[in-house]
Design brief:
The relative contact order is 0.05. The chain contains 19 helices and 74 strands. The protein is an alpha+beta fold. The strands form 19 sheets. A five-stranded mixed sheet has the order 1-26-25-24-23. Among the domains are: 116 residues, Immunoglobulin-like (Sandwich); 117 residues, Heat Shock Protein 90, CATH 3.30.565; 133 residues, no CATH class; 109 residues, Arc Repressor Mutant, subunit A (Orthogonal Bundle), CATH 1.10.10.60. InterPro entries: HATPase_C_sf, HATPase_dom, His_kinase_dom, Homeodomain-like_sf, HTH_AraC, HTH_AraC-typ_CS, Ig-like_fold, Reg_prop. Its EC number is 2.7.13.3. It catalyses: ATP + protein L-histidine = ADP + protein N-phospho-L-histidine.
Amino acid sequence: MRIRKHCLIITLLCFSCLMNASGFMFKHLEVKEGLSNNQILDIFKDSEGFMWFATASGLNRYDGDRMTLFRSYNADPASLPDNYVESIQEDYKGNLWILTGAGYAIYSPESETFNRDVHEWLWEAGIDGTPALVHIDHYKNMWFYIKGKGCCLYMPESQLLYPLWFGTHQLPEGDITDIQECEEGVLLVYNTGRLVCLDSQTNKIKWQQDDLTRELGIEKQGIFTLFVDRDNDIWMYSPFGMWVYNPKQKKWLSQLADMTKYRSCNRVRAVAQDKQGRIWIGKDQEGIDILDKKTGEVRHLLNKADDERSLQDNTVMALYEDSSETMWVGTYKKGVSYFNESTFKFGIEHIGNINCIEEDKEGCVWLGTNDAGVIYWNSATGSRSAFPQNTTDKLITDAIVCILKTDDGKLWMGTLGKGLICYDNGRVTRYKKNMPEQQNSLAHNHVCALAEDKQGTIWIGTLGGGVQSLDLKTGLFTTYNTSSAGLLSDDVFSLCMGKEGSLWIGTDQGLSELDLETKKVASLKGTKSGKEYFSDQHISQVYEDSRGLLWIGTREGLNVYNPQMDELIVLGVEQGVSSPVISGIVEDDHKNIWVTTARGITNIIPAEDSKTGGYTFRNYIYDDKDGLQNCGFNQRSIKKLSSGEIVMGGLYGVNRFRPDDIKYNKKCPKVMFTRLFLFNEEVKVGKEYEGRIILDKVLNKVDQIKLSYEQNMFSVQFASDNYILPEKTEYVYKLEGFNDGWLTTAYGEVTYTNLSPGTYMLKVKAINGDGYGGGEEASLKIVVYPPFWLSVWAYVIYGCLAVAVLLLGRYLFPNAFKFTRSGGRVDVFVGLAEGQESQEMLEVRVADTGVGISEEDKERVFERFYQVDNPDIELSGSGIGLTIARDFVKLHGGTVKVMDNVPAGCVFVVHIPVKCSGSKPAEAEQAQVAGSLVEDVSTLQVPEPHAAPDAGAEPEEESNHIITIEGLEEDIRRLESDNAEEIVEERNIETISTIAPQRATVIQLVEGEDNEIITQVVPPEELPEAVTAVSGGRKGTASFSLDAEEKLNSLRDHVLIDPIAREVAITSMDEKLIDHAVKYVEENMARSDLSVEELSRELGMSRVHLYKKLLAVTGKTPIEFIRVIRLKRAAWLLRESQQNISEIAYQVGFNNPKYFSKYFKEEFGMLPSAYQCKEDG
């Protein structure tokens, strides 16, 4: 039974029992929307939410707002290898595998670059060969077909590889053209039509089907493509036909190639299944067939030249349904067409300019046009014809502004200037003003409104003649106008029969109510109490709903009047109406109100307040993006049909819809950050801005961006994965730290200027065009660094400078007071000054009115122990204070000088840079204190072995850079003698620099047993080697940075070292050690578990000692030392042996060929395979 059912389906497909395809309305993307080419070969949506289009000229990424193009450039190896892009897939890391005319390339979404050489990736996975076909299943496992070898399965998470080679693993030999998943595992199809199913658990062949191979023969070999639907039926198609195979029944359901008599099924290009289970079949030059497998119905979609919502091109190249149930169609010449049921909520019939709409008892619709009379339209079939067909009366071909089908079957039509027309079964009766054959005539020839009461009386609203009633039995007109009945105006635009036996009359001066029994007229310009007025007195339409509410349309908004409570509510643009110009009003079957305006329609949902009896309103706006005509609707041209369908007339025809059938997009959009701009310039990945890289990855992949205070004008662009109506997507956002409330924007961009330094969090949520969303938010941390003078380091410097000023004062101020007589003056000035090259400097001036300093003494006043010989000076010092002040200032990159004060005394001027003086990191390291070396000698950095001194370094001005400390003068003098050892022992000085290198002795730091740091006195002749050992061979002193106060305190206890740079000398003991280490590693080469601990035990030293020794001598850590020996042996084996790479990797101690390749490339700059090929060549 099931086979017969499927055969019936296939037969129906070929014989095409075509259904009306008007419900499938497409939106389109072409070159004008940014596509690089209109020939689409594949479509894909990635895990980030971006749409990708493979074209014949480049790869395109779409975010709903803009198209980003990726092309091939010969000068850029990180670009596409070829512009002809055939397919797109995504692996487990989010990378895209792109098949081009030049083979596969791997796209990295983080860097937006392409890896053209997939062999490196394949080699690391253990795959040898070039894949002709790659398939990534929904588990993100990767299937590779390598021509001539077979297939293999790679599981990235477990890094397991399962080969399925021809012959070895019983896989039939041949040319595989497609790989797809099915319930039982994986399907392979050959170019002969052979189907092979591999078990997903064992990766062994479960079944194979060769019937088609035997039937087609050799002459019909080619590219076969597979699609498996949710019933596990296998659809296979090629240029020779399409076939369906049911694996459960093990039978072919039908062969469509034999059924081409009525419709060709031989040229199928793509097959997909939508969420409703319908099968979409894209064909060459024949559009799309949509098959409902349950009912057997087929809808055929073709391009219609006069319908912009139809399929754009009849040759379909690709079909893809995304997670939002949107079906994307790639065409051959017209780009992309895409369909979603919630995109166009309103259908359209291009009939003409429709002024009025009426329905008869049979359900047929009568349309009054602006220039073609009346059109008879069958809304069920879509057929239409001019009416009437059996009359030549030209009046019926004029503009019809209102139309009424009465209970007796007559059709009444009002015109502008041509009076009233009645059509009754082929007979036309005309009513005009002052017609002699009529007993009394029409009051005016402009008829704008018609209505019928319960007695069958026709009510006529005219422009200039008021309201008339026509008694069909007597043929008499009765007139109600301003003079006879008290109407507000004789210009009547709308008539509405009330449920309480009254006729509501809309005029250009307000609303009148005619009691049909008493024939009395009451007028309203607002509420009866007179407290509120209509928003405008020019009434375009009046409509009474099922609640008894009056809906009054004007040119200045919609008025809702409750006669029972005498309450009036005005709804305008601010209250959610699409336009203040109201065209038409109607109520649907759910008592909701639909209002046409000059800018779309508004759906109003009233809700009654049970406590007050009043009403509240919830509004939804729709426009041309939802499928409406791109124009304003005509006045009063709206009608609800008996079927519940609502029809609205406009300039280009009618829009039609059933409120119950409207589909809403309930998928919450996901926000993607797309671009960052600085001063209107897009920030590129990896590009430096002001010496710093802002984006090391694309914006959507970073958690935060860091900006300087000068980068104070930036914009962040974002988009969402809502492609159904992206132009109606709204975004709510806030920048925490700047504004706490959510703001709304219709544009995917926010711009900020002059943000204060600090840390901010930008949060963005998206709401789709149907109001769904706002849940999931995207966040981006934004750090704006303060200017240097407001940074933490600046405040540290300020503190240091303050301390510096105080400490300078300790030596400068006593001098000033000491040499200033009683009654004199000492002035201190602290401020900022400009130095060389606009360098900002801290300036300290100490001016006194003392005895002053002579010119010859000014040159020597900063020398150690120098004192001015002046008999007038009562006090004297040690002669070291100014020296300490000078050296302290020099430590901070500053200067100090002395000058005369006018009229007496002297001025000491100190300049210290406010910002860093520009010393390099290596120089900064040399500003450390030797005593710190004793605390952690292991932190010394050892240079590369045999590294030459910096040839560009300038020699030091002095050989010592000594800062002597007050109270150490005697010790220093004693150091210049021959009893240095006694002084060291007495003062417990750990390391002392040379004052006179030819006579000095230093303390060498030595590592003793158990890694204990001990000291040892070094004779002068061994001074260079000792200093080199302490400093690690570097020029200058190895130490750590201190702030100003710590530096001074350290200087009081220690004296700086300034050794001469030397290369690290490798002694004979070192050579023996290295030989021993190399020999041991070579003997244990094949052992992957050889460890540093084992090597250190073999060499008889601690791991720390081995680390320092190998680093000092070879420049390598122990781990690197072992690895390099392994790699050099591997390189020799690659050159000399015939072993393959995996065998060599295991032989030299690597238990993973992937890591072996990685480290080999780091050491030799190329992969092992390339190295081997190079050597073989």
